[in-house]
């Protein structure tokens, strides 16, 4: 008699309930960037080695992540309100 092998589990998707180190660094940067002299775009390039366009794409996705809201609800709420205000201004 042959023993039946247990089924191979499906690959796990990344856990969306936790933030990556980079995502936490982006939130921390947003919380403190205004304290630094100079251009935010330059600080983004220096800190993350990303174009400002790519950085804002990542940030916008992060603002929709429930884990980010749980991590820093005040900051994420403020950034969401700013995003909504800017979107309304562009539609006018």
Description of the structure:
By secondary structure, the chain is an all-alpha fold. Helices cover 63% and strands 0% of the residues. It has helices at residues 21-32, 40-48, 52-63, 66-71, 73-91. The protein is extended, with a radius of gyration of 19 Å.
Mean of residue pLDDT values: 86
What's the SSE pattern?
HHHHH
Which percent range fits the helix content?
A: 55-70%
**Rg value:** 19 Å
Task: For the record, give the distance between the C-alpha atoms at the N and C termini, rounded to a whole number.
Answer: 74 Å
Range of strand content: under 5%
The tally of helices reads 5
Query: Looking at the structure, what is the overall shape?
Result: extended
Query: Can you summarize the main beta sheet?
Result: none
Q: Tally of extended strands?
A: 0
Helix/strand-derived class?
A: mainly alpha
Low-confidence segments, given as residue ranges, are none
Question: Which helices and strands, and how do they pair?
Answer:
Elements: H1 21-32, H2 40-48, H3 52-63, H4 66-71, H5 73-91
